[in-house]
Known about the structure:
Layout (H helix, E strand, L loop, with lengths): L4 E4 L4 E8 L4 H14 L4 E12 L1 H16 L3 E5 L3 H10 L2 H4 L4
Parallel strand pairs: 2-3, 3-4
Antiparallel strand pairs: 1-2
Helix pairs in contact: 1-2
Amino acid sequence: MSQAQIRLDDAGVLYLTGVLDHTSGPALRDQGQALIRAASVATVQVNCAGVEKSSSVGLALLLAFMRDGQQYGKAIELTELPDDMRKIAQVCGLTDILGVES
């Protein structure tokens, strides 16, 4: 399994990659919050195409990033949510909150 990572490009796209679970979650949470705060765009896109596997920790991260966006006055837009994350969101009734199609 690969190490999970998060990075922000100059266009305001936050790339989330690797395995999102209880071991990677805390560091990603702190790093993501700092990157969202530092972003110079009004809308930060969180691209999840590189997520290899996710537990419910991945959805908790996305919800936390959305709260960070509100706190720092930035919109958060989720893109390319993998099927496993989408299915967890459906089961938990979070598709509307996350702004993803079921």
